[in-house]
């Protein structure tokens, strides 16, 4: 039996939409070697990470020179991805993450993240989100 490989690392991404795909790919590559044992992780992680980064760009970044911070943690049975943007945040307590909005409304990203992650956590300011996969 091989030794358990756990991951704890941070990345930064400039607030530029063209960097989202590469950043998501980098997250998946980092986790490829972890012995996390979380089933069906890549699809769920890719969808959640894309939406989290897109939300950071849309709602938290005011210029392309700013950066979003990504924290990655993988342990046996648990993977966490956190994205923190430089913005003021939002009142996540008021967000309806259970009911998908109609097509004309915003807010689909949080609903999608909530559907693919096992848990969602926000910091007090609402400018950081953590998706937990178990």
Structure description:
This protein has 134 residues and is α+β, with helices and mostly antiparallel strands. The chain has one domain (7-133): Histidine kinase-like ATPase, C-terminal domain (Heat Shock Protein 90). Helices cover 31% and strands 25% of the residues. The protein contains three helices and five strands; from the N terminus they run βααββαββ. The chain has helices at residues 20-32, 41-60, 108-116, and strands spanning 7-14, 67-75, 78-84, 119-122, 128-133. Strand 4 and strand 5 (128-133) form a beta hairpin. The two termini are 22 Å apart. Pfam families: HATPase_c_2 (PF13581). Keywords: Kinase, Serine/threonine-protein kinase, Transferase. This is Serine/threonine-protein kinase RsbW. Residues 36-132 form the Histidine kinase/HSP90-like ATPase domain.
């Amino acid at each position: 039996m091989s030794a358990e490989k756990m991951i704890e690392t941070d990345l930064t991404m400039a607030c530029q939409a063209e960097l989202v795909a590469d950043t998501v790919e980098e997250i998946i590559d980092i986790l490829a070697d972890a012995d996390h044992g979380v089933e069906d992780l890549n699809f769920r992680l890719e969808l959640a990470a894309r939406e989290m980064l897109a939300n950071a760009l849309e709602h938290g970044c005011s210029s392309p020179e700013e950066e979003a911070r990504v924290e990655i943690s993988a342990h046996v049975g648990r993977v966490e991805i956190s994205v923190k943007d430089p913005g003021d945040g939002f009142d996540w307590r008021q967000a309806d993450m259970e009911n998908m909005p109609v097509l004309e409304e915003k807010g689909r990203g949080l609903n999608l993240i909530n559907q693919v992650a096992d848990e969602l956590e926000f910091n007090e300011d609402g400018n950081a989100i953590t998706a937990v996969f178990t």
